[in-house]
Design brief:
This protein is α+β, with helices and mostly antiparallel strands. The protein contains 10 helices and 9 strands. Strand 1 and strand 2 form a beta hairpin. The N and C termini lie far apart (57 Å).
């Protein structure tokens, strides 16, 4: 089968009453278009079209799926459709709104509100380029993830998991609102089948249990990714991926470099979220919100000589990092 990516639908194609304007994005699991509804309002139209399972020639509407991959394609399609059905029931400003979902052209389309702005990933890259002491201000990180967690809590209350939280999937609108986009349910269903050839996870943001078969996932799985996103906002780049951490965990020494730059509480919250043992993480979004929103007097511990020696050695003296403890009761929404 050709490795050529499926061709996008051409402009002015009419799908389910929506007219395609242009392609906005493409990934391993489909394409996203800017489209207009019947009243001329812009919407984002997401098309299920995994590039490892299907091809589509330029100018064509129907995907072509080899017979040996048809059952897997249909399994992912069913999951994508069910994801649209579930998301359509959620109404929260921090969760992308699904306005409609329908089957056409032997695939499924999800219609979402069209957001203008940029992803958190773009903000991090821009901030990192400024080469300041802080990639993002602590007050900004706390405020941003307060919004993200409010939306994620509603998602979990609907018995859903996001499963692909990362800076590229946190959208910052022009009104400075954070919105969770691009849920990964279809990815995970395909992953459990064991035959899909592309990674189902984003290294650095995927919890250790996502790399294992038949391992229970829950709110703690998304919480790991939230911690990794906060880490990225502080460091300017993602943490090591879970397999590397399980072999030699450098998270504590990496976070130690941020002592004195960010409050002790924020550093401890990130370490708590990113515990490699799922039971050592916050078990609910509410528990994490409660800790992140503490308003006690902030404390900033300056790194000591031992910390600096550890950095030069590339890790903790004596081997693995200690298990992260629950954060102490210190926090602030303000920068020092």
């Amino acid at each position: 089968m050709s490795k050529t990516k499926p061709a996008p639908l051409p402009p002015d194609t009419l799908i389910g009453g929506y007219r395609i304007v242009r392609q906005l994005a493409a990934g391993g699991f489909g394409l996203v278009y800017l489209a207009l509804d019947s009243s001329g309002q812009p919407v984002a139209l997401k098309e299920y079209l995994p590039s490892a399972l299907a091809v589509r020639a330029p100018g064509e509407l129907l995907p072509v799926v080899p017979p040996e991959k048809l059952s897997l394609y249909r399994l992912g399609l069913k999951s994508f459709f069910e994801e649209g059905r579930a998301l359509a029931q959620i109404s929260h400003p921090s969760v992308v709104s699904v306005l409609n979902f329908f089957r056409e052209n032997e695939t499924v389309y999800m219609v979402m509100n069209y957001l203008e702005g940029a992803s958190l990933q773009e903000f991090i890259v821009t901030a990192r380029g400024l080469k300041k002491k802080k990639v993002m201000r602590e007050a900004t990180i706390r405020s941003l993830f307060d919004e993200v967690l409010r939306g994620l809590r509603i998602v979990h209350q609907h018995k859903m998991l996001h499963l692909d939280i990362k800076p590229a999937n946190i959208f910052i609108t022009d009104e400075n609102k954070a919105v969770l986009i691009d849920f990964g349910a279809a990815r995970e269903v395909l992953n459990t089948e064991g035959n899909f050839v592309r990674p189902m996870y984003t290294p650095g943001f995927a919890a250790p249990e996502m790399y294992k078969r038949n391992t229970g996932m829950g709110p703690w799985t998304d919480i790991y990714a939230v911690g990794a996103c906060m880490y990225s906002c502080m460091q300017g780049y993602p943490p090591h991926d879970a397999p590397q951490r399980l072999e030699k965990d450098r998270l504590a020494s990496s976070l130690a470099r941020l002592r004195g730059v960010y409050s002790d509480n924020l550093i401890e919250v990130v370490q708590w979220c990113m515990a490699t043992d799922p039971l050592s993480r916050p078990q609910s979004v509410f528990a994490l919100q409660k800790e992140l929103n503490r308003e006690d007097e902030p404390q900033f511990t300056q790194p000591g000589l031992v910390d600096k020696v550890r950095w030069r050695l590339g890790g903790l003296i004596g081997g693995a990092a200690p298990a992260p403890a629950r954060p102490s009761e210190r926090s602030s929404f303000m920068d020092p």
